Amino acid sequence: MHYDLSLEEARVYRPDLPVPGDLAEFWAGTLARIGRTPPVLERVESGLVTVETYDVTLAGFDDHPVRAWLHLPAEPLRPGVLPGVVQYQGYNGGRGLPHEHVFWASAGYAHLVVDTRGQGSGWTTGATGDPGGSGPAQPGFLTRGIEAPDTYYYRRVYADAVAALEVLRGHERVDPSRVAVAGGSQGGGISTSVAALAPSSVAAVLPDVPFLCDFRRAASVAQTEPYLELVRYLAAHRDRVEQAFATLSYFDVAVLGRLASAPSLWSVALMDLTCPPSTVFAAYNSYGGPKEIEVYAYNDHEGGDAFQRTRQLAWLAASL
Amino acid sequence: MHYDLSLEEARVYRPDLPVPGDLAEFWAGTLARIGRTPPVLERVESGLVTVETYDVTLAGFDDHPVRAWLHLPAEPLRPGVLPGVVQYQGYNGGRGLPHEHVFWASAGYAHLVVDTRGQGSGWTTGATGDPGGSGPAQPGFLTRGIEAPDTYYYRRVYADAVAALEVLRGHERVDPSRVAVAGGSQGGGISTSVAALAPSSVAAVLPDVPFLCDFRRAASVAQTEPYLELVRYLAAHRDRVEQAFATLSYFDVAVLGRLASAPSLWSVALMDLTCPPSTVFAAYNSYGGPKEIEVYAYNDHEGGDAFQRTRQLAWLAASL
Amino acid sequence: MHYDLSLEEARVYRPDLPVPGDLAEFWAGTLARIGRTPPVLERVESGLVTVETYDVTLAGFDDHPVRAWLHLPAEPLRPGVLPGVVQYQGYNGGRGLPHEHVFWASAGYAHLVVDTRGQGSGWTTGATGDPGGSGPAQPGFLTRGIEAPDTYYYRRVYADAVAALEVLRGHERVDPSRVAVAGGSQGGGISTSVAALAPSSVAAVLPDVPFLCDFRRAASVAQTEPYLELVRYLAAHRDRVEQAFATLSYFDVAVLGRLASAPSLWSVALMDLTCPPSTVFAAYNSYGGPKEIEVYAYNDHEGGDAFQRTRQLAWLAASL
Amino acid sequence: MHYDLSLEEARVYRPDLPVPGDLAEFWAGTLARIGRTPPVLERVESGLVTVETYDVTLAGFDDHPVRAWLHLPAEPLRPGVLPGVVQYQGYNGGRGLPHEHVFWASAGYAHLVVDTRGQGSGWTTGATGDPGGSGPAQPGFLTRGIEAPDTYYYRRVYADAVAALEVLRGHERVDPSRVAVAGGSQGGGISTSVAALAPSSVAAVLPDVPFLCDFRRAASVAQTEPYLELVRYLAAHRDRVEQAFATLSYFDVAVLGRLASAPSLWSVALMDLTCPPSTVFAAYNSYGGPKEIEVYAYNDHEGGDAFQRTRQLAWLAASL
Amino acid sequence: MHYDLSLEEARVYRPDLPVPGDLAEFWAGTLARIGRTPPVLERVESGLVTVETYDVTLAGFDDHPVRAWLHLPAEPLRPGVLPGVVQYQGYNGGRGLPHEHVFWASAGYAHLVVDTRGQGSGWTTGATGDPGGSGPAQPGFLTRGIEAPDTYYYRRVYADAVAALEVLRGHERVDPSRVAVAGGSQGGGISTSVAALAPSSVAAVLPDVPFLCDFRRAASVAQTEPYLELVRYLAAHRDRVEQAFATLSYFDVAVLGRLASAPSLWSVALMDLTCPPSTVFAAYNSYGGPKEIEVYAYNDHEGGDAFQRTRQLAWLAASL
Amino acid sequence: MHYDLSLEEARVYRPDLPVPGDLAEFWAGTLARIGRTPPVLERVESGLVTVETYDVTLAGFDDHPVRAWLHLPAEPLRPGVLPGVVQYQGYNGGRGLPHEHVFWASAGYAHLVVDTRGQGSGWTTGATGDPGGSGPAQPGFLTRGIEAPDTYYYRRVYADAVAALEVLRGHERVDPSRVAVAGGSQGGGISTSVAALAPSSVAAVLPDVPFLCDFRRAASVAQTEPYLELVRYLAAHRDRVEQAFATLSYFDVAVLGRLASAPSLWSVALMDLTCPPSTVFAAYNSYGGPKEIEVYAYNDHEGGDAFQRTRQLAWLAASL
């Protein structure tokens, strides 16, 4: 069922979201805490013959180890330096097994599949812990450390994501000026935030049905997990509603995205119960760079899926 | 929750399933109706660089056109003739888009991804219709034509599946003695049936959490679609219960599988609400060829997923 | 819960639905394919003493056999020729057992209870198959053959329905100028379409909570089966959304009904999750003949049920 | 899903249910309180021509008025005196509208359709109130007055049911020696209880999927309303569990039925979530008179429905 | 999810609800039927040392016995006469066990916890029956006797509630000019009605997320029990919709509350699926006395819970 | 529904659970890491007059601050030193607001209500964070750090719980030889573990429907959260099943409880979907000290609730 704004309303939906006065300082300070330990790459046998895979351990926020797979098209299918794609994961997923996510590598890109710290026990598995603790929180990740921007879980996640991007850009077989960031749902939110926090490092952005957008509306209209973690937190901590939203304003893709400048190809699903289409448009409409959006009128959170992949293959080939 | 037989009980569960007296004749007559129109292969651009893809139209039951993708590892990654894998689809899925299912090709196999006629409007899309009609049936495919073996939907599906196998075996780049059949759920049921109906053509079988096994128990214990289509049919047609099971006995993987002889690697999930583990063991325990089974104790119908893929890569490399 | 347009909004809801340019030709060609095999009537013993029942096999689309029951009030309760009612079935139902649907016969009408081909495995059973196949489709009937008007399932159903009407009109004990068509849900959609396709044969129409109306809105607001079959089809075949709606425009009761001219008594339920009230009003508001509508404010898809039956008894007695 | 005892186990399931020492006295005292006000019959126009209908007000427990419809086959279809059927209603139903339940009249019987006091706001409507109050009770009827046999709701209901039986037997057009009692679910429980409480007045019993049987097991295995009313009551009144079961032992069809002697035709559904098959067999196995049972293996609470109606027509014609 | 009016809309939502012409007479006549039997108080041992508890039996409507607990702060914590709080219960609850509801006594008030007749088999238990019967009704209390104001269940409940208030006011240790009425959900509705029916006896009102407000809108938007009892009643009795609403207009808190004059502190939850926020605001906006309302933006029917208790402690200390 | 072992089976259910060889060392090492910072107590105004409340900050595992409320009966209701009760919280709850949990103080005990670190955003709120991080984990607390006993979340929780016990025992108004531990669900598991880890400090144990018992069976039969967190973790990390259970064996109440010696009063609910009754009996049957258990036959996870509180009041008064 279409339960959110109509497409016409959503296309012009531009909520007046507060921008924290110290947003730039906060993120400058955060990115300064990315670790400097050089990444370790180890060749692994995935069982595939068309892709070459490396197990990557890179330094994230506070030098915490973050795990990823680097997939390269097998020799001799990768002449010279390659364009790259960093892929971030949906909520509760991880980089998975070595043979699991090789789409962009199969399409000729250097492909870095990055874990989300602490996650990776859901639809795919991860190998990265989160040493950061939290205050009282709902089960889940969305309210972990929400009592302040400094302690909020996604501070560490976004910093890790920027770190991963730079690792791929620094790889000898990669052209650092031609690296895209991509992901669906949480991965879409992270990739857009990375485009905002490291604008000069990102050549293109591919956010699908992004999460982490326009939290106040999301809390009002979302019908399924994980936004409901936030709703339950606010239902319990009736005295911390504004404090929670104040924290979230530092991480809202509909706030941060204004700082981005890379060309972008988005997607949205009009029956998406997880990431309501209005919240996706809030982010899309405020995004700072060139942008296009594919609208899937009858899809839930799966969005365009393989159809969007086809669209992205062509768009990215033309954009990078 | 574990709701079915315990693992210990399931390992020795061997229901006494009736074998139709004319089973061999029925299937001989059915396979004789596979069309003889030569397959048509057309190169398509999938957007991937590591795999080469062909749009295949092959002749199925009664010469009805059946669509498939043939994926080959890109040159020069495929020296000489290749071992092959025919992959059948889960219920309501289809061959999808050209870039969607390339796992076995990425692992070095000639890989044929075959549609299931009439299906392909679910988790992946298909391009193959089913000209066969039906008597009164539940919405869905499981009871279409169930009034007699001759009209039953899966008669046409199994015949198509054998036809597809022979098309891959007949391809110039394929070693016909080294072709495996594989699939999950409905695809697992079909691949085992193919191994039974064309035993000399199949070199290995990879059935994951197979559907279409031990229908009477399935109707008794299954908790979700699509076995519930059968339950609803039996609930409506209270006077045709035995007739329906008589038809199904020609298609039951736990009956047919005795005729198979190829080595096989199975998987089962003990919390599988869709394909109850007891029904999978009914088929496994009666399977005629060499066999191993991976047990996933805490999984629902997703079963072993990528973990089973890892296991299959090693097993198949050693078996073919 | 009231989840759709308010009653005030619904009463004036007139969507601008596209009318196919060749609509008349399409239906003329379709009706021309109704078979000419004369109907066969066989007396059956229903166990009832007040109604006399015949098992009818009539020629439907492409001369396919369609089954029905003809119920007549028992002698001597039926003096002279009788007015008639053709009753079409709700989705997934059938003509049932001989004693099951005898309401209109008990009220003094010649009563023909017609199967819907391929259906009849749900709340009542049917005896009529559908030899027509389909392209890739959702489990169910609503998307069977949706790739083109010529192959769409309801083409055959509507043609069968017209055929059945003429069979009742041709019966020796029936006054052909006094025959009504009736049905709930799918049966309501079919009866209105019959009134549009055979306007000179229909003396009155009784559509209750009709299905098959204003498909685009239905896909947008319906919350339960079977409209969700369409939504899932559109979700899978993201590239065929407009093609599907183009096919449906030939079968939309809100489009066809403009061609009808018989007096009609409708009903609608404002909490109907299956056939949203707005879609019913879309059809009602565009209906071409005289019309009245009963509004059931707190009912789901059961609508007025026995209360509407009381209303219909009086209205039909006055109208025929 | 089959969730209860297997059919083999159920066929021999005979729980050791306690019989209250004063059971006979209790019921003698109760039936003595049936009112003696003569019934009032008023001809109503139902809109049907094959059945003649009277609005009946009869004296129930404590002379409370109880409403019913008396349907007779229309003249001249009813020569001489007729056999009769008293039909009791399922939980939350009522006698409905005059044209609604005329099955047995259409089959040639004098047919009394009786309200259940206080109910009749569900699938059909009733016109009979319940002046009796209750102690603290769950919403619903099953725990109303459960604190003692004297105050329990079903005491009044069973007495009303016996009163209605005698009203039909006393009608001038009815043969008092050929009256059956019938009903599904709650109606099945009531009809069996009537056969036990007025054994000399009942010529045959037709209980379908009866409710009110073997309460302790029902509370343990039932998965849906209305037995869950009892479970919730016991969950709240943790200190009254035995008191509640002591009350119920006076009303348990599996206890009372031993006193019955009329021939009976039962039905049970093996996937019945409302009236678990084991509880039905508990009553059937202990029933005092001749008995047969139809088993519907794949049905939920709808049981045999029209198929059982066919069976009953033949059986009753042969039995009365 | 926010599914009802926005907060801005709700704050000004003032439906035009009909006021029965004989409202005052009806209630005068009703209150005149409160029994005059003096209350009986019996000291009970609750196991608590800080609170002293009495089992109270008081005379309600038609002198029916109504049970309550009177809790007093233990000596010597209660110098002189005390302010009082009468607490009414939520739907299906009761006064519970002696140690269960002692909040207001612990805060220094004479605290009367009153049963709701016939209820008390849910989240807490009750000890008070309802000798009043009903016409055909939905399972539950909301439609019991809804056929007329005189027979409606809540007539007896509201009268009992007024009786209980006067019992507390008449206690020797209570200052009759300083007694508040309080409750959540149904208890909120009752306490506001008491403030309207006995305005000179009530010093303050504490309605939380009140039930029994603006029934027509409630029937239109409520998503869960118990308002759905009303919807199901209206769905069955399609011919009694206006009659039912006419009865309810005598009991609607949004109608009665205009007659109240005591200061009040309300609460509402914007995600309340049980008592929709718009219905609460309908009552709040029409309330006749001084008023404040706490809005809990992300809570379902639990509302402010302990947070509201904190707010009430301060407000009541300042108000009494 | 009764879905687990029958009561008879459960009473003798004694699974053969592995005891880690270094269990004693592990816990000795863990308890050695409890902080030595003296507790800080600050008087707060709760609004209640019968209870005096202090905000407590005590040193937990690794000296992390843990928050609690200390409630004492108000003067002069607490002569001399008092017996004490430490109350641990159910999953996702916290110590709540100062007036929220005062039951044991109202009964005359020194009552310490302790937070569970990181939790407290559910049915009650908490104020204690968890600085400990985790590896990849399911959303929730049950799999946080499950990769090894050293990192497992409940290691810190159990240590905090022992620390809190000692704080209460060390209070000047408390008799250290008369302190009980109590709690429901997670609180029941924690209190029993505390009795095992600090046997000489615990005078009585009151575990209600305890969580954290017999994890392997719990994962097999539990039907709701939070045990399903574990099931989902095992479903994702198919390769870590035994590693996870190995970690859990250090924390299993059915393993640890053998080390306890204090008298105990347990409760279990036979329809408990959250903490299956068999798992509770596994813990109860292996408990090392004197024991009694109340069985609530028809309750879900709410168990005996206020009824059990009555039972506990009497038992504890007699036991301490």
From TrEMBL, chains A, B, C, D, E, F:
Gene3D superfamilies: alpha/beta hydrolase
Protein name: Acetylxylan esterase
Domain of life of the source: Bacteria
UniProt xrefs under InterPro entries: AB_hydrolase_fold (IPR029058), AXE1_dom (IPR008391), CE7 (IPR039069)
PANTHER family: CEPHALOSPORIN-C DEACETYLASE
Region (Disordered) residue spans: 121-140
Domain Acetyl xylan esterase positions: 3-317
Residue ranges, compositional bias (Gly residues): 121-135
Species, as recorded: Nocardioides conyzicola
